[in-house]
Amino acid sequence: MENRKLAVLIDADNAQASLTAELLAEVAKYGTAIVKRAYGDWTTTQLKSWKEVLHKHAIHPIQQFAYTSGKNSTDSALIIDAMDLLYTGNFDGFCLVSSDSDFTRLATRLREGGLTVIGIGEKSKTPRPFIAACDKFVFTEILRPEKAPEAVASNDKPRTRTTRQSKSKPVLAKEVHPLQAMFTSAIDAVARESGWAELSAVGSYIAKNDPSFDPRNYGHSRLSQMVKKLDFLSVQEQRNGSKLHSEIRIKDGEAAEPTVTAPVTPAAPPENPPPAAAPRKKRAPRKKTEPAGKAG
């Protein structure tokens, strides 16, 4: 991934200039940005904040006038340039920075061409079809380090409330958490017969089904750290030289019930019925003797 050649195309009308540094740092994790372009009508006052950012980060501005008032023609210019870059064959992937659903078809077309597509946009504005059309989608909310602790604090508040009420309620709340269903389906898909699944395989499976999945959305920098904080998962780690091999499974779920409790529960009930049957036989002869005495 480090040697991948990427083309970064920014829809300036639907992106934040204040996050440009964090945005490019995120792109660097997936490859090298060979082309960096930002599209918009730079004659308007709405894009003033972009001027200093463009020069600072060597982003090439592409001027696109609005042919009709009230309509944005930036999307078409970005799409045309993306197709031109695709046909050159010099790139391994594209990074589309926008929250506009109009780029959904562009993302699918680039993937059909065998290229990796990374989307970056706002969580509240980006439609689900555009997210699903990308190989990986990063929300801009997690690019700011200041907003990460706020998300963790908001998640901790309801947990403290449940612990004050009773000890069993926080466990029920965690079982209802959407992460449990996500991890359960992923583990069932890649787990061995023992129920254990490799953490790397689980992460790959989740990423394929939900491109927007990122441990940082839940306040963790890595998936291995996030897994250890989930109470419904069991984690085991083994070292093979310098590499750390991690495996996970569902705790007290599908794997625990059939292996331990199933053979024990049927063995207990058969011991109780025989002593219960013995007193019933003793009561029967007593009833027979009483009517015989009355007849004599």
From TrEMBL:
<dbReference type="Pfam" id="PF12872">
    <property type="entry name" value="OST-HTH"/>
</dbReference>
<feature type="region of interest" description="Disordered">
    <location>
        <begin position="237"/>
        <end position="296"/>
    </location>
</feature>
<dbReference type="GO" id="GO:0004540">
    <property type="term" value="F:RNA nuclease activity"/>
</dbReference>
<feature type="compositionally biased region" description="Low complexity">
    <location>
        <begin position="256"/>
        <end position="265"/>
    </location>
</feature>
<dbReference type="InterPro" id="IPR041966">
    <property type="entry name" value="LOTUS-like"/>
</dbReference>
<feature type="compositionally biased region" description="Basic and acidic residues">
    <location>
        <begin position="244"/>
        <end position="254"/>
    </location>
</feature>
<dbReference type="InterPro" id="IPR021139">
    <property type="entry name" value="NYN"/>
</dbReference>
<dbReference type="Pfam" id="PF01936">
    <property type="entry name" value="NYN"/>
</dbReference>
<feature type="region of interest" description="Disordered">
    <location>
        <begin position="149"/>
        <end position="171"/>
    </location>
</feature>
<feature type="compositionally biased region" description="Basic and acidic residues">
    <location>
        <begin position="287"/>
        <end position="296"/>
    </location>
</feature>
<dbReference type="InterPro" id="IPR025605">
    <property type="entry name" value="OST-HTH/LOTUS_dom"/>
</dbReference>
<protein>
    <submittedName>
        <fullName>OST-HTH/LOTUS domain-containing protein</fullName>
    </submittedName>
</protein>
<feature type="domain" description="HTH OST-type">
    <location>
        <begin position="175"/>
        <end position="249"/>
    </location>
</feature>
<feature type="compositionally biased region" description="Pro residues">
    <location>
        <begin position="266"/>
        <end position="277"/>
    </location>
</feature>
